[in-house]
Request: fold
Amino acid sequence: KNEVEQSPQNLTAQEGEFITINCSYSVGISALHWLQQHPGGGIVSLFMLSSGKKKHGRLIATINIQEKHSSLHITASHPRDSAVYICAVEKIGNQFYFGTGTSLTVIP
Amino acid sequence: EAEVAQSPRYKITEKSQAVAFWCDPISGHATLYWYRQILGQGPELLVQFQDESVVDDSQLPKDRFSAERLKGVDSTLKIQPAELGDSAMYLCASKPRAVNEQFFGPGTRLTVL
Reply:
């Protein structure tokens, strides 16, 4: 059983489209993280959320603690946004559980 | 800008051989994680250190895998003997004490033939 479920698994979009990636989790958490992984493996942290909403450039992340759900939105998508986006939850004790990732391809 | 260092970046080995990966976390980061990521899946925790102590190694296959962080700084992950199913990306991450954010290294991609 996966503590973290992401959808969709794969996503192809045209440049300029608005993109939403969803994450649901089943455990109590202290924080939720959105990560970006480019081909080659490097992972960078995009957001850390414990409530509400955060925005950074064209990226927006929201979390609903009661519903145990988070979304990552990309506005005006661009080919350079093509990557795997991973949702991870952090439990008390600094233990992290990861979703399987959403592979995004943005076509020019 | 400080980064988590890992070496080697790529490793090809034959099954039954021993392999070792090294991770140097960002200076001052107390928590160090080793993850295994199979292609198409999310990272899976192998072991978590707090300083030099193991906090969680429940998912570490201890018959063949070992990990140490003797001085609470850098860490080594060893596999002996390697099996075909061990082919994956091995990621190291570190986290400072008061911040809930992990910083990932570039990973070591292991191929077992």
